[in-house]
Amino acid sequence: MVAFEVPEVDYTQYTNRQLAAIPLALLAVALLVLAGWYVATGAPVQLGTEFTGGTELRVQTSTPAAEIPDQFDAEASVTAVRTSADTYIVTFPPEAEDVGQQARNNLAPVAGQSASDVVQSNQETSASFGSEAQRTALLGLGIAFVGMSLLVFVLFRTFVPSLAIVISAFSDIVIPLALMNLLGIPLSLGTVAALLMLIGYSVDSDILLNNHILRRGGSFYESTHRAMRTGVTMTVTSLSAMAVMAFVAFLFQIELLTSIGIILVLGLATDLMNTYMLNLSLLRWYKFEGVAR
Amino acid sequence: MIDLRDNWRLVLLALFIFASVFALFAPGVGGGAPDAGANASAVEQGGGGPTNLQYGLELSGGTRMRAPVNGVTAEGVQIPQGTQADAVQRQVAGNLSAADLGDVNVRFTNTSTTVEAFSENVTADELGAALDAAGYEYETVRPGVTDQTRTDIVRILKDKISRAGLSGGQVQQVSTANGGDFVVIEMPNVNQSEVETLVTERGQVQVVATFPSDNQSANGTEYRRVPLLTQGDFRSVGTAQDTRGTGPHVPLTLNDEAAQEYTRAMNEYGFTSSEGIYACRRTADNPGYCLQTVVDGDVVYSADMSDGLAESLRNAAARGDSVNNFFMTTTNMSQARELQIHLQAGALPASLNMDEGTAYYLAPSLAEEFKLYSLITGLIAAVAVTVVVFLRYGDPKVAAPMLVTALSEVLILLGFAAAIRLPMDLSHIAGFIAVIGTGVDDLIIIADEVMSEGEVNSSRVFQSRFRKAFWVIGAAAATTIIAMSPLAVLSLGDLQGFAIITILGVLVGVLITRPAYGDILRSLLTDK
Prior knowledge:
The complex is a heterodimer of chains A (293) and B (528). By secondary structure, chain A is of the alpha+beta class. Chain A has two domains: 197 residues, Multidrug efflux transporter AcrB transmembrane domain (Multidrug efflux transporter AcrB transmembrane fold), CATH 1.20.1640.10; 72 residues, Alpha-Beta Plaits (2-Layer Sandwich), CATH 3.30.70. Chain A contains eight helices and four strands; from the N terminus they run ααβββαβααααα. A four-stranded antiparallel β-sheet of chain A has the order 2-3-1-4. In chain A, β2 and β3 form a beta hairpin. The radius of gyration of chain A is 23 Å and the shape is elongated. Chain B is built from 14 helices and 18 strands. In chain B, the strands form five sheets. Chain B has a four-stranded antiparallel β-sheet. In chain B, strands 4-5-3-6 form a four-stranded antiparallel β-sheet, covered by helices on one side. In chain B, strands 10-9-14-15 form a four-stranded antiparallel β-sheet. The longest helix of chain B has 33 residues. Chain B is elongated, with a radius of gyration of 33 Å. Chains A and B meet through β4, α4, α6, α7 and α8 of A and β17, α10, α12, α13 and α14 of B.
């Protein structure tokens, strides 16, 4: 009794060029999106308040949403929280001051609550602190990626297969980043965590594939199929767990878990494509042509 | 029959699970202990739940502030032998328009001398110019204060928080990768504005006498302001109270020196004469005779001289004695309580710069919701993994131990968190979900590898396949650890907890649970 089985793909039908073309084209488009974003906004990705500085309030008030921005001295943008009535997330630019106090003074509390209950959470980040966090996050991502790349080269000690893993991992991060811009998900500490998690997850299936093809007996296509059976199961398991988590956390409005979930779903889907098209085509070239030379 | 030597990995796993359950649920272990009040390292002292787990701010509610200290520092200042610190202090403060004497601090250490200016309005260049003007050479000037000053600030802040009755509050120093130094204050169940006044203000308390001076000029009366008493002048500080007649106040006992000076000054300045008694008019142009309570340069209250006190001051002066009781008056009780904390804990050497920091406040009711919801989210994610694994293998013999192993991994981590009293936050929960994810991935690798190439009929075949699978798992684990380690070290707030849990989870997985899964699978597959 097997409810789902990983399908066997007949790779002989496709040339290496054909296989690599789609992932590489998508990577190029993603890089273009990031570059365009950089030209248009000054940053390659949309930055959240944790990185730009600013204040985010979660308020519960009977004041209608349309009137909320007028209650503050600073410019405010309001989004409603779906799971609880009369609750809003209000964000302010870094210059805004004392917005928590203004909220307590100017917004009407819901029935049965006092003015001090209006503000449910308040997250303030100064602009200078935000840019410091930005640098630290970038540094962390950079070190993580370089460390991973070095380790991969040490493990396989051959250039092309190691490079295949590194390129796949790079694309696994860049494509979700571009998708984040298009979907309007800002880069926050949570999404940086998700991107780092992607490095860990995506390299798993790449290492598995390389290991089966390079270090095991059997024909290229046999090894590929065995690696795929395990690897696709792994990725699909993680993918479904993350999709469910993103959905549930979205319903509950736990922002951190929602963004981690969404990024991982995007990244793992990208990883399926990169591992079994890009990485595989590079490996096949290496195995049949690269080694022979 | 079960051979213990063959199944030692399983025994190890069982031991770890047992220890974790003990750490999680046994009363008296971890934060649930009734005597845990002495431990100020965690935000919430357990208690609230059925487990010994500690919860951080995001799951228990409260306020967290993270800010650098206001001030600039000159290092390697050359001060000639024999020059006293206070002389340098006076000279430098005199050359700085935005700082007074109390804002400048000179520290001699074995190797070098530093001069710090704590006013938020003094720039590094201005401090340099002030030192130049005073004729002292120095090596560098930089924004920020010395390590020792930050240590003092942390100590005083801890004192203030505990005196304010905020149990479980935590204060620590944090340095970032880019060389920034911050003070982090965490307090459960406290409203942000309450904390902010207590910790961002320096709490320098003074009593200032204002009175008409002797030399009158043509355009009316001139007034003198003389600082009488400051924080160091008190032998003991009483409890803030509100009595009829005096109003809200803090009773104090002066030390001998201060008492003599106070008695002398009151008589000399005319406070004890008929003109000075009940003569505080509290108007700007003609204040009369007032004793002002001043906190951080702001006048909190202006008090009259009463006739009873005036009499005892006169009598004491006539006997050559002094009066050592003093009431520091305020407008209301909450001011009096704050004043008491400032007097007892002492003034902060410098204030915190909230304009360059972060503040986070979460209502405890919302935090309770987060706690429940994130638990549900985690469980649902685990169920999703279960469903997929069962769909894929269809064989409960393979899939069931997989889930048991993955969940025991989380249990061991939870036990570990309870044992070291790690305050759990949302980021840790994200880490747990990541651990389930990578854990199951690795178990899938083991299962597929062991069951590939036909039946497993001997222990030896199993061992060799298991070893092959382990190479991939080890390599994948090493990459995950490398990817997460920068975040575990860098101070990026939320992400540190996430990275630490993920790394621990990978280690527990590779060293304990995954080998044990191998044992389970072997006995299930080879026993046929």
